[in-house]
Amino acid sequence: MQLVSGQSAWAIEATNLVRRFGENYAVNGIDLRVSPGEIYGFLGPNGAGKSTTVRMLTTLLAPTSGDALIMGHSIVTKPDTVRFHIGVALQDAALDPKQTGRELLDMQGRLYGLNSLERKTRVEELLQLVDIDSAIDDRISTYSGGMKRRLDLAAALVHQPQVLFLDEPTTGLDPVSRAKVWKEVRHLNEDLGMTIFLTTQYLEEADELAHRVGIIAKGSLAVEGTPTELKKAIGSDVVVARIPTTETSRAAQIVNNISGVQSVEVQDDEVIISIGNGARGISPIAVALSDANVPVLEITLRTPTLDDVFLHATGNRLQERNEAKVAQ
Amino acid sequence: MTSQNITARKSGFFHDLGTVALRALRLTARDPEAIGPALIIPLFFLVVNIGSLQSFVEGRFPTGFDFKAFQLPVAVVFAVTGVSRAGSLVTDIQDGYLDRLLLTPVRRATLLLGLMVADFTVVCIMTIPVVLLGLVLGITYETGILGMMLFVLIGGLWGLAFTGFPYAIALKTGNPTAVNNAFLLFFPFAFLTTAYVPKQALTGWLSTIATYNPTTYLLDALRSLISGGWNITLLAKGFCAIAIIGGVSFSMAFAALRGRVSRNS
């Protein structure tokens, strides 16, 4: 389908977006539609293609093929126009450490054509957002990671964009700073009606903030929907049995035959069982495994998470990768 | 004023240029370690060269040859050549701040031109202490105050013309070491010329190279303002030398800028 600039009811509409680096496809045919006023969570592990997608949608990178309209303007043919409508906070806070926070925001306003009074008004408003009080007149090099991230967000908002792109806005932040960013994202969306495209590798972040979630793996969109829809799609409840890895295949075969079991997946030493009614099904599962002399180290019942959705869609867990990354 | 009516809009070319230049000048003032040595070294060489070589050189040339006046333009060339914000441009690239600028509607060319405007301002200012030291040492200008002002302007333009090289390296490589090594370009320009003795005293290959070195004509133009009076031919050759260097270096710098901001890379 050919996208036509100026004709789209969507805030973001991407069709068959492809980006190739040499022989490698970083993004391979992504279709996206984000409604005005929606928070769209783009979830995936490192290297899945999230940032490349954002760099294309924000005009930093041209797609190898395909196109996207941002507020009806093509990123391929009208990148200059797109830039007036978007605000972007990239993965690493892109700040100038030798300027003060106020100078940086003021310069940002100048680059978007705001006059002196407008810049002053916006900087004062954004001061409440960045919540760094008098430090706004200190050099950015003296700021903490959380302050830098909030200032970066403020810089993206100086010109009051209609669409805000946040590329992993809380990666590396402590829980308090993360909560502040979440609160602000909700405020921007609920009170100002801003459309927000949020990439993250944190499941709870997508679950907490996003109206809809797209899971990207190996450059392609694996699954998309509201968090509730996605969780429901893989079953009402999840039983996880931790079993020595030598026994997981046999255990999976055994539980697969139990009434009510919808699907069984093995991930390392875990057998993950999707089941309609977990409270009713956990006992038969435990009994069946015990009768077959499968040593069960631990068995738990829980509702599905986005990690289960991710596993279902890609065959891998996202959570473990993140935990492993933290451990490193 | 409420913020409801505040929206982004395209600003003019000179507005963008001024915004980028203003930031560069502000940061230059906060970066004295980048400017200090560039100012001290030429003053040092001016004093040392005069102290050590004046009698030797003046004794070999006709009466009236003023080695101090001969050396002052060399000090200016030392002061202004290679002074640029290329190092901070590399930092912007590495920190991702250049990306933040590219996400705005700013005209891409002004991202470089703004830095060059700031550089021009800085190198003109850096020429002034050299000129003042010259006055203290008793150097006078046959072309008067106007000639002295043109002396500063030519120095500034030479510095500006040369900035394209470090910017080209910064934009092409994004590597601070490569930018720091750009000063190596300075040596052939500054020394394979009439830096220490007049051209007629140079012999063999050095004389040949000096003939083709644009710095030779720059120095001739600057020296003419001090001790030769208004000499349009020498000044024209000096401006031509600046134009040639500027043409080459700016072409390289803007080609590198196009590559850096290309959305296809």
Structure description:
- The complex is a heterodimer of chains A (328) and B (265).
- Chain A has helices at 50-57, 79-85, 101-111, 116-130, 145-157, 175-190, 203-209, 227-233, 248-256, 278-291, 306-314, 319-327, and strands spanning 12-21, 24-34, 39-43, 65-70, 73-74, 86-89, 163-167, 195-200, 212-217, 220-225, 237-242, 261-267, 270-275, 298-302.
- Chain A is α/β, with parallel strands linked by helices and 328 residues long.
- In chain A, helix 3 packs across helix 4 (116-130), helix 3 packs parallel to helix 5 (145-157) and helix 4 (116-130) runs antiparallel to helix 5 (145-157).
- The two termini of chain A are 44 Å apart.
- Mean pLDDT of chain A is 87; it is low at 321-328.
- With 265 residues, chain B is mainly α.
- Chain B has one domain (13-264).
- Chain B is built from 12 helices and no strands.
- Chain B has helices spanning 13-29, 32-58, 67-80, 86-95, 97-102, 108-136, 144-173, 176-180, 186-191, 204-212, 214-228, 232-261.
- In chain B, helix 2 runs antiparallel to helix 3 (67-80), helix 2 crosses helix 6 (108-136) and helix 6 (108-136) packs across helix 7.
- The chains are: A alpha/beta (328), B mainly alpha (265).
- The A-B interface holds A 58-62, 79-80, 83-86, 88, 90, 92-99, 103, 107-108, 110-114, 117-118, 121-122, 125, 155, 159-161 and B 1-3, 6-11, 15-16, 19, 22-23, 26-27, 30-31, 88, 92, 95-97, 99-106, 263-264.
